[in-house]
Amino acid sequence: MGRNSVAAADKIQSKMGEGTFGQVLECWDRERKEMVAIKIVRGIKKYHEAAMIEIEMLQQLGKHDKGGNRCVQIRNWFDYRNHICIVFEKLGPSLYDFLRNNNYRSFPIDLVRDIGRQLLECVAFMHDLRLIHTDLKPENILLVSPECVKVPDYKGTSRFPKGSSYFKRLPKSSAIKVIDFGSTTYERQDQTYIVSTRHYRAPEVILGMGWSYPCDIWSVGCILVELCTGEALFQTHENLEHLAMMERVLGPLHQHMLKRVDRRAEKYVRRGRLDWPDGAASRESMRAVLKLPRLQNLIMQHVDHSAGDLIHLLQGLLRYDPIDRLTAREALRHPFFSGDNKFRR
Question: What pLDDT does residue 162 have?
Fold first, then answer.
């Protein structure tokens, strides 16, 4: 058990972020003489429980992650007036915040490669410990350093207002760490409850077929596409539309999967096929699906070199059937990751 008071050792500097769980404050730790991030969790039962799971997972991961290079490190935790407070090392911005502050401009392919390698190393490390993150997304991947450099950006000049458009920011270092282990779970049989944030949710989760380690791999595939394009691959809030978007980008869902859907998902299937466009909620929904390009075309629009290797890797990460999907270790051996890395960690 940690200290029992925020005031005892920490001086609050600023608010770093806010979420449904509560908020994160940047604080000065007087004992350690360093800046830390303190996650203060709302005093509501479900968030309290998630925080206790997160603490257990962080301690578990910390025991095995000797260099502390993959996952955010927990410094301490305490209960303050029924608010669980978790003290973390202070890191830089999330990949999502970095993209947003950069007008959603894409990352160069060498940076995507280095981030992808580190992300898959973290996922492989977790899966070896029989842990499934279940909520991988750009918001939960933090750059270790907040430092960035400005580089000329000629591609963006037509899209953005004058002044901002001739430069884009890039992280000075590509080093990342994964955060938010409140939804992390041990691998068990027959896990069918809904996991993952919508845009990064695997088809087997939507179809209620049960999920395991491969649901993390699907999320990694979606994240890599987003880093290459600057925008989430599947921008939707509705199950049938989401599945139709998958078919538009990746080709038809497998019939054997559509036959195994659970009761809640039966309404998305008709005569052994996805009930689309007949089941579409609106014209707007149909348009949102139709405007999506095939995966190969999408990547080739944004990536100059290594496009072929990246497309091949993504096709392995985004296979519909979780049994056929690459594992994290298999993905790390893919030729895409043997390319030269021009970014410093």
Answer: 53
Compute the distance between CA of residue 16 and CA of residue 171 in angstroms, rounded to an integer: 19
Is residue 135 flagged as an active site residue? yes
Q: Which of 65, 135, 153, 180 is catalytic?
A: 135
Whole-angstrom distance, CA of residue 140 vs CA of residue 177: 9
Chosen domain end from 51, 71, 89: 89
N-terminal to C-terminal alpha carbon distance within the chain: 34
165 lies in the same domain as 66: no
Q: b/e string for 22-36 if b means 16 or more Cβ within 10 A? A: bebbbbebeeeeeeb
Query: What is the token pair recorded at 111?
Result: 């940076």
Q: How far apart are CA 239 and CA 218, in angstroms?
A: 16
Res 245: pLDDT: 98
Element (H, E) at 217: helix 214-229
Domain boundary residue, one of 89, 117, 150 = 89
Amino acid in the structure at residue 267: K
* Residue 277 in domain: yes
Q: Letter for the amino acid at 325?
A: R
**Total domain count, the chain:** 2
Q: What pLDDT was estimated at residue 73? A: 95
φ and ψ at residue 193, rounded to 5 degrees: -65, 160
For residue 114, the SS3 value is helix
Mean of the pLDDT values across residues 316-334?
98
- Looking at residue 317, its amino acid is L
C-alpha dihedral sign at 92, 142, 332, 341 = negative
- Residues 224 and 183 reside in one and the same domain: yes
- Smallest CA-to-CA distance from 16 within 85, 90, 82, 67 is with 90
Confidence of residue 18 (pLDDT cuts 50, 70, 90): confident
Token duo for residue 293: 């390009």
When comparing pLDDT for 327 and 3, which is higher?
327
